[in-house]
Design goal:
There is one protein chain. By secondary structure, this protein is an all-alpha fold. The protein has one domain: MetI-like fold, CATH 1.10.3720.10. It has eleven helices and no strands. The longest helix is centred in the N-terminal third of the chain and has 41 residues. The radius of gyration is 23 Å and the shape is globular. One of its GO terms (cellular component) is plasma membrane. Pfam families: BPD_transp_1 (PF00528). Keywords: Cell membrane, Membrane, Transmembrane, Transmembrane helix, Transport.
Length: 273
């Protein structure tokens, strides 16, 4: 027992100092006034000034998760059920590249790609698909959704494709022999069996989306924007850690609700077995 505690002591110490202690301090500071007394004034101020940013962050996160789930299911499903000898290996090699690109690089790339005179509109204009006068900048909520999705799709696909590859293929082959198409096999046989892994990946993606600062700071210059950008703004320009921590409390609540919903569905599914 003592030797086991010694082995895990460095990891526990790092978690306590780098994660647990700052989290506890931020929660306490969010409910403290300048004189150290406890109140909800910081929460009220955060809601008064940044309620639009809170709603904006939630909507962007939900839209990003929906796009991530749809694209990840499509890619993982094709990797599992696809039959092309060249498309499957090419897709398996290609989809992982965003995993190795930092968010700050992804944000800068998206800023150049999605601007009004960026690469996307330039390609569309050169191809004759879009008129130059009608070109629009996507450096708004659309750019955030596309960037978050592009960055997180490989992570979710990797977990989902791994879970699909571990399934017993006898049921899939039986369904295919009875005339079921690949889409029906995917949605009726494969997805129900890997739903827990998909939910875990989406919850982890939500945590990542709610914690990234570089992407909203690079893509959006006005309001509303993500809560992380407003927290940084509050600290940088006002030195107001109390309101910034109060604003961060809403990020904690959103991710906690997502984790609670996942645990409830998982326990309910286990109880029904």
């Amino acid at each position: 027992m003592g030797a086991g505690l010694l082995l895990v002591a460095p990891a526990l110490t790092a978690i306590g100092l780098l994660y647990a202690a700052p989290l506890l301090r931020s929660l306490i500071t969010a409910f403290q006034d300048g004189d150290g007394s406890f109140s909800t004034a910081n929460i009220a101020k955060a809601l008064e000034f940044y309620s639009g940013d809170i709603i904006f962050s939630i909507l962007v996160a939900l839209a990003s998760l929906a796009l991530i789930a749809a694209a990840s299911i499509a890619i993982a499903g094709y990797l599992t059920l696809g039959e092309s000898r060249w498309a499957v290996p090419l897709l398996r090699w290609l989809y992982r590249w965003p995993l190795f690109i930092p968010f700050i690089v992804a944000g800068q790339t998206a800023r150049s790609f999605l601007a009004r005179n960026g690469m996307l509109n330039t390609l569309l204009v050169d191809a004759g698909v879009l008129d130059a006068a009608a070109a629009q900048s996507l450096l708004d909520w659309r750019g955030l959704v596309l960037t978050f999705a592009w960055k997180q799709i490989p992570f979710v696909t990797l977990l989902l494709a791994g879970a699909m590859a571990s399934l017993d293929r006898s049921t899939i082959e039986a369904a295919r022999n009875l005339g079921a198409g690949r889409l029906r096999c995917l949605f009726d046989i494969v997805l129900p069996q890997v739903r827990p892994q998909l939910l875990v990946a989406l919850v982890l993606s939500l945590v990542t989306i709610m914690s990234v600062l570089s992407v909203p700071a690079m893509l959006i210059s006005g309001n509303p924007t993500m809560m992380t950008a407003m927290m940084a703004h509050r600290v940088t320009y006002y030195g107001d850690y109390a309101v910034a921590n109060a604003l961060g409390l809403f990020s904690y609540l959103l991710t906690a609700v997502a984790a609670w919903a996942y645990l409830r569905m998982t326990l309910k599914a286990k109880a029904g077995q």
